[in-house]
Batch of 2 targets.
Target 1
Amino acid sequence: MDHPPAEQLDVLLTRERIDSRLRDLAATINNDYAGREVVVVGIMSGVVVFLSDLIRGLEIPVRLEFLNASSYRGASTSAGELAVDISGLPVLTGQHVLLLDDIFDTGHTLNRMIGIISAMQPASLQSAVLLWKTERNETGLSPDYFGFEIPNKFVVGYGLDYDGLYRNLPDVRVIPE
Ligand code: IMP
Ligand code: MG
């Protein structure tokens, strides 16, 4: 597959819809975490746009940490080898941790991160994703918070890439099969 120009890709979610949904999501999180401080742990790099928009709607005290995970797979549907780098992450014992990822597909990435962070014995651990491909779950896991349920299509934009490209698109678009 080549890299079609962004204008040729169908829009799945407009910037306006995402903005509006993220305001609701932030309000829910503010309510659920009222009186607590939260450590938001973002899974790089796809999460950056979602994370930066979501956290600006949070009114609770927030700390920010990142870890790296990549499952080298281009636009193929099968998840590749998952490489995880948590070297930048502090010990999260006793903290309220909210794990953030761009998309929940098979669930393997989040499953692996939850395993790693649970071992640090946080006070609580929840997850939030922008997109949830509900048809593809292979882990029996589900995200605690999500922006949108989407069909099993390869999507890009708003932080998500195909082959490293399209992360900067303001909306979510579909790569044709
Ligand atoms: P999972 O481990 O299968 O749940 O996949 C999660 C990771 O795969 C995400 O963090 C993304 O980096 C990547 N991914 C899954 N589906 C898509 C997609 O449609 N577009 C771009 N990246 C995707
Ligand atoms: Mg990712």
Target 2
Amino acid sequence: MRNAKQRRRPFSVRFHILTFGCQMNVADGDWLTQSLVSRGWTETAESDAQVYVVTTCSVREKPEQKVYSLLGRLKAYVDRDPDVFVAVGGCVAQQIGEEFWNRFPFVRLVFGTDGTAMVPQALERLVADPALRVSLLDFLDHYPEREQPEGGAVQAQAFVNIMQGCDNFCTYCIVPFTRGRQKSRAAGAVVAECEALMQRGARELTLLGQNVNSYGQDKHGDGTSFADLLGRIAAIPGLLRLKFTTSHPKDIAPEVVTAFGALPSLCPQLHLPVQSGSDAVLKAMGRKYTRARYLQTVRDLRQACPHIALTTDIIVGFPGETVRDFEDTLELMREVGFESSFSFKYSDRPGVRAEKMDFKVPEEEKARRLAILQELQDRMTLESLAAQVGSETDVLVEGQSRMQDGEHVFWRGRDGGGRIVNFSSPAPDLTGRMVRVRIVDAKKHSLTGEIRGEPW
Ligand code: 5AD
Ligand code: SF4
């Protein structure tokens, strides 16, 4: 009975989105949610959905297995109601493609990142026609603009894609194969989306792309450089905070470095993946910068913005990495004093150049190096958090803290450097507000503060 009803009213459908991977996938999931809701669909709990959208990641480890085990879980819902179906998108979908529907007949849509813009229409067609399957895996030669859902308030923190894909082909990385060539979005479209988000209540904008510093430097650019784009967005009235990720050290322009000192809303934080501190390994990775150049960029950044919080990504055990190379990485970490870092054991990805390199580092040795590196980082993180104690800072509140003591209400937000700050306040709801906080304690990964004055 319900199935027949569902076919007659195809556009009032309960959906659930499951996201793996990077911030770009998270932002894609948010856009999809808004777009489907604006079509009258309803977001619901996993156990109650009729349509599932899974966005996948293949940058490391064994992501296919993760996706397959999730699909195994979702199959239970299909067994219960045969009209239930699944859409699989993102990097694993791009790699595995239509094979998904051989193994999992209830997967009726596969889409790559360039296909995301067309997913809402495709889902509507799939609901209306149960015999249909759709594949949106083609790479496009331009940034496919997405419809901008109208109205409705948004959260204080909003994300805006400025580009898609990557042209760097670092030798370990699968992204250029799964996300295609770099395609910058027109500056006018980016600025218009930022303005619309500000009007809907955003206060902090994060610009997203695989390599934002080369924004505009592909054939789709309209002459606007990344530094120009930052300047235009920073000038939007009401914007309190501007951030961006991810940056490639070889592409960060001097104008972007000086922007950290010149644009008051540009947050004093930068995620600048170094990957290794050894010139030999950087060369084998195809990173196209040296350790010395990276360190010079860090000095330039600190000159422009003395309190900038630097974070990074590091791979240990790249093929051919010697103990000496690894020690160079540890030394570079100490020299920079990263606030925090994401560190990974090198893992082979299918089809990338490093997969075929000799002198693979044994698994136990990679694990040993990773443990040493993470212990060093934990100590440095603690030290840099401890150095904040006694200072006052502005915190943009993200919501209630996970940890509550039952007596006070604890709120969680971030300072301009991206550090997590918890503090208590009896205010009924501080989500999306800015508060002045005095830092009184440093934990392993967060700060504790006391609120000062009125939120704004
Ligand atoms: N093995 C390990 N780590 C990887 N990364 C990318 N590809 C690999 C790989 N094959 C890491 C890099 C990158 C981050 C997103 O993932 O550090 O910056
Ligand atoms: Fe991968 Fe390198 Fe492109 Fe980053 S810059 S997405 S690591 S190829």
